[in-house]
Amino acid sequence: MTRTDINRDNLLNNVRRMVVKVGSAVLTTGEGLDPEAIERLATQLSALSDRGIDVVLVSSGAVAAGRQRICERLKQCRKEYKDMASRQAASAIGQGRLMHDYDEAFAKHGKATAQMLLTRSGLKQRERFLNARNTMERLLEWGVIPIINENDTVSTRELEFGDNDTLGAMCLGLIGADLFVNLTSADGVFDKNPETHPDAKSIPVIEDIACMDLEAMCDGKTNVGTGGMYSKLRAARRAAQLGVPTLIVSGKGEFDLIKALEGENGGSLVLPECKTVSSKKFWLAYHDNPSGSILVDKGAANALLTQGKSLLPIGISAVEGRFDRDSLVFIRTQDGDELGVGMCNFSSAELEKVKGKRTAELAALVGSIDFDEAVHRDNMLLDAAI
Fold it and tell me: Taking the model in full, what pTM does it have?
C-alpha cells in the first residue's frame, strides 16, 4: 500500500491482509485472562475475516494465563515472574489455556484457529523463514485464523524477539501484510508521555516516524524487552520501512476495531515511508540481533550514505565484538553514530587482519576468498530501526 492509497477514514479500502497484535494489558485483568476481552477480539477479527480480509493475530497472554492456572490449581499465587525459567514455565502452562479460550471464542463465529509458536532462531535461516511463510499461506488459504506467539519455553535472551511488537512487525514481511494494527492499553501515540505530562497531546497521524525522537517521547524508556510504547513505535517504524502503515489504538473496554479502521475511536496512524525496502532486506536486517559493530571512516560513511556503495575493508577503522562470517553487525561511524546493519562476509578475527587494507592485499591476509566486500550493499540496510 502506498502513501497515496491510504485514507485515514477508511483503512479497509485497500487492505487484503493484516497483522493484529494484542498485548497482555488488553487481554488480562489483575487476576489473569479476561474472557470478555478475548470474546470481543474474536468477534471483531471474525467480522474482518467475513469481509474477505486475511487476519493474522499475534497474541501475548500466555505467561499471565499460566500464572492464573498456577494460582488456581497449585495455590502458588504471584504477581509476576522476573526470572526467565519461571516465565518460560508459566508460558508453557498458560499457552494451552490461551489457545483453548481463543478457539472457543472464534468457534462461535464459525472460525478455526491455528497455533504457531515462532522463535528468532527459527526464522534465522532463510529456508526456515520461507517454510514458515508457506505454512501460514496455506492456513490463510483455508480460511483459518493463525494465532502467533513467541515460543517462550525455548527462547533465550540472545535469540528471543524480546516482545510481541517486534514479532508482529516481523510477521508483516512473513505474509506480505498491507496493515499492522497494534492494540494497546493507550489511546494511540502522544507527543509526550501522558502518564507524566498532563498536557500531552495525541497524534492522529504520524507522517514521518523516522524523523521523530522516539526516546524523548517515551521519557527515555527504551527497554523493548517488555513492550511499552517505545517498542510499539519501533515496530511501527520497521513496518513503515516495509511500506506498511500501522494503526496504534486502544483495545480496552468496548472497543470497535472496524470503527477504528474507519477513522473513529481515536488512535494514531503511522504512515509508511516514501522509500521502502524489499522483504528480503527487511528479513536480513531484523531476523537476528547484531553480534558486533564495524566502525568506518568518513570516506566509507559517505560512500555508503550518498553513493549506495558496498563496504570494503579499506574503509573499516575498527571492529567491536566477536562474530563469525555471515553474522549481522552494526555499521557505525568512528564517533559511534549508527549508520545501519549488514551481514558481514568476514569473521571479526578476519576483519582485524584486513581492516584498512586494499582489496589486492586480502588473499594474502586471510587466504582465498570469493568476495571483496566486507558488507555487500545488497546485504545492508541503512537507517535500520534496531
Answer: 0.85
